TrEMBL record:
Cell compartment(s), UniProt: Cytoplasm
GO CC field: cytosol
Name by which UniProt lists this protein: 3-isopropylmalate dehydrogenase
Keywords tagged on the record: Amino-acid biosynthesis, Branched-chain amino acid biosynthesis, Cytoplasm, Leucine biosynthesis, Magnesium, Manganese, Metal-binding, NAD, Oxidoreductase
Gene3D superfamilies reported for this sequence: Isopropylmalate Dehydrogenase
UniProt pathway: Amino-acid biosynthesis; L-leucine biosynthesis; L-leucine from 3-methyl-2-oxobutanoate: step 3/4
């Protein structure tokens, strides 16, 4: 039987809670689609600091290197903010993993689920126009990885983009648009930033090779506003590291909750790390109320992009939609609900086993 080796890095806060549900759902897929998973659990982030003294222990990195894909929860939280910045979970574990595996291409797909527009904080007439956006975020360069300086009286972060770094993510965006609605909106701040001017220049060069795709450039401040005014105007949003980070949280909120937005971070060899777009949510950790859907949908992206198991990936996405339709949701999606994290996971796993179809 085909067996996939997965490095499972649950991390901190709600990470272990939502990861448990993703594993449940993956197990249901393995049974229905007749393949197997070999899960290799490893410490990462604050959990690793507390256990072995560093956020990304060599054994965890080795586990990732020896696996077919990484399923990641989330890292960080107030317990570790007193540490020097380069030892904190976010930088020492997550950014390091992204850099180590050169996971430059971050996909964050956001949409309204059929019949669930009311989850969105946007007005119903805006929601009625629909939203189906793929945010493509450059993930291994830009201001998160540039030189940093700190003195007693000042601090600086540097944004540097090389042509090649912009080229490779732009190509991914145009290719993604070919399989979607043929539109790329490239986000920058070319009116004030030198890196933004280069970004726009390179995107225009790549656009020449994709005459079937319409390209539009939008300043990031306008993009933040347009997303709220009319998200239906966007197909693929091409973003640098910082702007993609910020706008994808906005996408999550527009679709209904941070707990709905999955992500895939992929390198040029097709190796990937899959994680919810949100963080460790310390405010709700341990309460069994975290929404596991983003983690579960990230597992679906893993099946699609790392293992080419499209039927299983679609079965998960379908089951999540069906779960939403039966209104089995955590309170981030409906404050009147008392459904637990595990109940959502159980329902989705059961829907996969029973081959339940979403109504749409
Ligand atoms: N990939 C990662 O590991 C990331 C880690 N972080 C870290 O996480 C910690 C908390 O960061 P925040 O800024 O508070 O962002 P966050 O995304 O963890 O939480 C923001 C808000 O969204 C809610 N939320 C997030 N995921 C949810 C879910 N699955 N179900 C229901 N509600 C959910 C939280 O309860 C909170 O109210 C920080 O240490 C931060 O650095 C933040 C983003 C990504
Ligand atoms: C904690 C950051 C390093 C990551 C983040 O916010 C994200 O990937 O969305
Ligand atoms: Mg973020």
């Amino acid at each position: 039987m085909k067996t996939y080796n997965i490095a499972v890095l649950a991390g901190d806060g709600i990470g272990p809670e939502v990861m448990a549900e993703a594993i449940k759902v993956l197990d249901a897929c393995a049974e229905r689609f007749e393949f197997a998973f070999n899960y290799r659990h490893a410490f990462v982030g604050g959990a690793a600091i507390d256990t072995v003294g560093e956020a990304l222990p060599p054994s965890t990195l080795a586990c990732c290197e020896q696996s077919d894909a990484i399923l990641f929860g989330s890292v960080g939280g107030p317990a570790w903010t007193h540490l020097p910045p380069d030892q904190q979970p976010e930088r020492a574990a997550l950014l390091k993993l992204r850099q180590h595996f050169d996971l430059f291409c971050n996909l964050r797909p956001a949409k309204f689920y059929q019949g669930f527009n009311h989850l969105s904080p946007l007005r119903s007439d805006i929601c009625a126009k629909g939203m189906d956006i793929l945010c493509l975020r450059e993930l291994t360069s830009g201001i998160y990885f540039g030189a940093k300086e700190r003195t007693a009286t000042a601090a600086s972060d540097t944004q540097t983009y090389q042509r090649d770094e912009i080229r490779r993510i732009a190509i991914k965006a145009f290719q993604a648009a070919q399989a979607r609605r043929q539109k790329v909106t490239s986000i920058d701040k070319a009116n004030v930033m030198a890196s933004g001017i280069l970004w726009r220049e390179v995107v225009n060069e790549i656009a020449q090779d994709f005459p079937d795709i319409s390209v539009e450039h939008m300043y990031v401040d306008n993009a933040a506003m347009q997303l709220i005014r009319d998200p239906s105007q966007f197909d693929v949003m091409l973003c640098d590291n910082l702007f993609g980070d910020i706008l994808s949280d906005e996408l999550a909120a527009i679709s209904g909750s941070m707990g709905l937005l999955p992500s895939a971070s992929i390198n040029s060899q097709g190796f990937g790390l899959y994680e919810p777009a949100g963080g460790s949510a310390p405010d709700i950790a341990g309460l069994s109320i975290a929404n596991p859907m983003a983690q579960i949908l990230s597992a679906a992206l893993m099946l699609r992009h790392s293992f080419a198991e499209e039927a299983a990936a679609s079965a998960i996405e379908n089951a999540v939609a069906a779960c939403l339709q039966t209104h089995c949701v955590t309170r981030d999606l409906d404050p009147n609900q008392t459904v637990s994290t595990a109940q959502v996971g159980d329902t989705i796993a059961q829907m996969i086993t029973e081959e339940v179809a979403a109504w749409a």
